[in-house]
Design goal:
Elements (H helix, E strand, L loop, with lengths): L5 H27 L7 H19 L2 H25 L4 H24 L21 H4 L5 H9 L4 H19 L1 H11 L1 H6 L4 H28 L10 H11 L4 H21 L3 E2 L3 E2 L2 H4 L2 H13 L18
Antiparallel strand pairs: 1-2
Helix pairs in contact: 1-7, 1-10, 1-11, 1-12, 2-3, 2-4, 2-10, 2-11, 3-4, 3-10, 7-8, 8-10, 11-12, 11-14, 12-14
Length: 321
């Protein structure tokens, strides 16, 4: 038990959460507009591959982030075309993107880099942690040095962006004209249309924003956490983000709390792997890897009935004549 350190769990939680937070905020915009965004997983994978590949070729991580944004936004608009313009089944369209990107990213990685479906290590083309001013001076101060250097500081810029997005998304959703229109399209699109709001245009904008936000999840995985792209490296992050949406009742702050909860269990999973626990002993790694997904099932079972989704979620809008 001495090997399990609370400080490491706290820091790991902060570093695990952004992958889910970006994806959950992306899903929030899409689903608040009335479009089920089951394709988060595929967009994370596509943006992770694009980010890693372009960052490696250019040796510039910001070009990688831009490439991931472009690819994820394009997929989001494609998903929007199927769901909004063509009135197609939103679940089928999202699942198709997930399956297609799972295979396509592997094939492209193998074709371009010939390393078994992964990209080469990015090396210096990664986004590294930021050391805040005064970290060295406070390093020897008990608790304060650790808190300032590892909890507040010592993270990539994308971590700070993830947490900064929370108040921005909350304000946009509840205190801006666009947010009002977005929620109206997700709750009662016919009333929004009668008030002069273009439901299709609003949903397209929401999907574009969702694509951009989701790209940061992929970029974070590839050029911050791992330093390369690996097949199916998202490991269900898109589905966990959707679970966090249900947990948070499609509200930004509560959704982020759900993401942090999943990040915490992921951190605990890493800490207890290979450790002898009292009365239990050493738990097999395969069982430990199940922890986040078992928690997902429990959360869905406990909160699905209590959550109230946008009323028009998943329903194609057909303009009244």
């Amino acid at each position: 038990m001495d090997d399990i350190q609370l400080s490491s769990i706290v820091v790991s939680t902060i570093r695990n959460a952004p992958v889910l937070m970006f994806a959950a905020m992306a899903g929030l915009f899409a689903e608040r507009s009335g479009v089920v965004d089951i394709g988060l997983e595929g967009k994370i994978l596509a943006s992770a591959f694009a980010s890693a590949a372009v960052a490696f070729v250019t040796q510039n991580p910001w070009y990688g982030v831009a490439a991931g944004m472009a690819v994820s936004a394009a997929l989001a608009l494609l998903q929007g075309f199927v769901s909004i313009t063509q009135k197609g089944n939103q679940l089928v369209g999202g699942i198709a993107i997930n399956i297609a990107m799972s295979g396509l990213t592997f094939v492209l990685a193998q074709f371009f880099f010939q390393q078994g479906g992964r990209t080469p290590d990015l090396g210096e083309a990664r986004l590294f942690d930021i050391v805040l001013p005064g970290t060295a001076a406070l390093e020897g101060v008990p608790f304060l040095g650790w808190f300032y250097g590892h909890v507040i500081g010592g993270h990539s810029i994308l971590v700070y962006l993830a947490f900064l997005l929370v108040p921005i998304v909350h304000w946009t959703l509840y205190h801006s004209r666009f947010g009002l229109r977005l929620r109206a399209c997700g709750e009662n699109p016919h009333a929004a249309d009668a008030a002069g709001v273009s439901v299709e245009a609003t949903r397209y904008i929401a999907m574009l924003v969702a694509g951009v936000l989701c790209s940061f999840s992929g970029a974070y995985l590839a050029i911050v956490q791992s330093g390369f792209f690996l097949r199916d490296m998202s490991a269900g992050a898109g589905y966990l983000a959707l679970t966090a949406l249900v947990f948070g009742n499609w509200r930004p702050i509560y959704t982020v709390l759900g993401c942090i909860m999943f990040g915490f269990f992921g951190a605990v999973q890493i800490q207890i792997e290979g450790v002898d626990l009292p009365l239990v002993g050493r738990i097999p790694g395969s069982l430990i890897q199940m922890v986040p997904y078992v928690v997902t099932v429990i959360v869905l079972a406990g909160f699905m009935a209590k959550s109230v989704a946008p009323k028009a979620l998943g329903r194609p809008f057909v303009k009244s004549r």
